[in-house]
Amino acid sequence: MFSSVLLAIDLNHEESWKKALPAAVELAGKGKGKLHVVTVVPDFGMASVEAYFPPDFETKALQSAEKNLEAFIAKHLSKGPGATPHVGHGKVYDQILRTAEKVKADVIVLSGHRPDMKTYLMGSNAEKVVRHFARSVLLVR
Fold it and tell me: Which of 56, 69, 106, 138 is the most exposed place for a label (fewest CB within 10 A)?
């Protein structure tokens, strides 16, 4: 059992949590450990891209992500251990790692995927999390 488990999900893709969610609940000891769930709103990356969006776009996107993550937790974890929501903003892998440090996670749980077989073993964000996190990472497929 782990005392602090971080589950990283993409609210727009069920495959990012369908198998990982039960694993995270199990690792958290079915309520004995603390479960945290993080989702990340990517930033624009370049100022030239940002110019094509309304000035309040990122603020609204973050507010929407917070609301949607709270609804996700209420729907999928209301009968279980519950969870603390976290919304990051920026590079996905970086925000997952920052959140893990903030909550002192013993383990990060996330799904691995192979988009169009471009990254042969796992997604690029998962690969970076595995490479840079100093503690355990469970990659669920």
Answer: 56
Distance (Å, whole) CA 111 – CA 130: 11
Single-letter code of the amino acid located at 113: H
Taking a C-beta distance cutoff of 8 angstroms, is the pair 23, 109 a contact?
yes
Is 99 within 8 Å of 6 (Cβ atoms)? yes
Select from 39, 44, 42, 30 the least CA-distant residue to 2: 30
Report CA-CA distances (Å) from 72 to 6, 37, 39, 66: 15, 10, 11, 10
pLDDT for residue 139 is more than 70: yes
Q: What H or E segment, with its residue span, contains residue 84?
A: strand 84-89
